[in-house]
Design a protein that fits this description.
mainly alpha, single chain, 68% helix
Length: 200
């Protein structure tokens, strides 16, 4: 199934976890390194929606007051904006629209840091309808990652192992975050080298 089909078929649990995972992968680390996983509290609410709105507001408040990575301030701002737009109602319809927006953001961010870069809407939408991925390894990896997460959670909590299924999804997302942050770090170091030579 394509990404769009998987998003269309997902339930509240899958949509919430997919959206959180997309934002979690794209959020640059805080400047002081004080909280490497600021979105982690949200994962606990993805299973049943318990305290979803409360945790959203708490996470958002911490991020708004934190010092982000100055070299990736624009990416941080985009993630925070989508987090603020997350529905407080843990229901399929509003979560579906939000998860769709999170999917696009994650693909765009990966495309921007990829080589060759791929950020035009047509290319990104082609990835989501099952067409060929026209970009580098970062974008291709993110397409696969989003599909794997949605497929895992589409099995339902009983088949996917309930909390075990969510932990598996978290592991997939954490690995993706590690890869993207490594690329972000190389780009940031490249911008600070004499002459502006890029290391990416």
């Amino acid at each position: 199934m394509s990404l769009l089909e998987l998003i269309a078929d997902a339930d509240e649990r899958g949509l919430a976890a997919s959206g959180v995972a997309c934002l979690d992968r794209c959020l640059p680390p805080q400047e002081d390194g004080s909280d490497p996983e600021p979105l982690r509290p949200l994962w606990a609410s993805c299973e049943t929606g318990a305290e979803w709105a409360t945790r959203l507001d708490a996470v958002l408040a911490r991020l708004v007051g934190a010092d982000g990575d100055s070299g990736n301030a624009a990416t941080t701002a985009r993630v925070v904006t989508l987090l603020a737009a997350a529905p407080r109602d843990f229901a399929a319809a509003p979560l579906r629209a939000w998860a769709d927006a999170c999917s696009l953001l994650a693909l765009d961010v990966h495309g921007r840091f990829d080589f060759p870069s791929a950020t035009d809407a047509e290319t990104l939408n082609r990835c989501r309808v099952g067409g060929p991925v026209e970009g580098g390894p970062l974008l291709a990896g993110e397409v696969r990652r989003q599909a794997e997460i949605l497929e895992t959670l589409s099995e339902g909590p009983e088949t996917a192992g309930g909390a075990t299924g969510l932990r598996r999804v978290m592991d997939v997302s954490v690995e993706g975050r590690r890869v993207l942050r490594a690329v972000m770090s190389r780009r940031a170091r490249g911008r600070t080298r004499p002459g502006g030579a890029s290391l990416a």
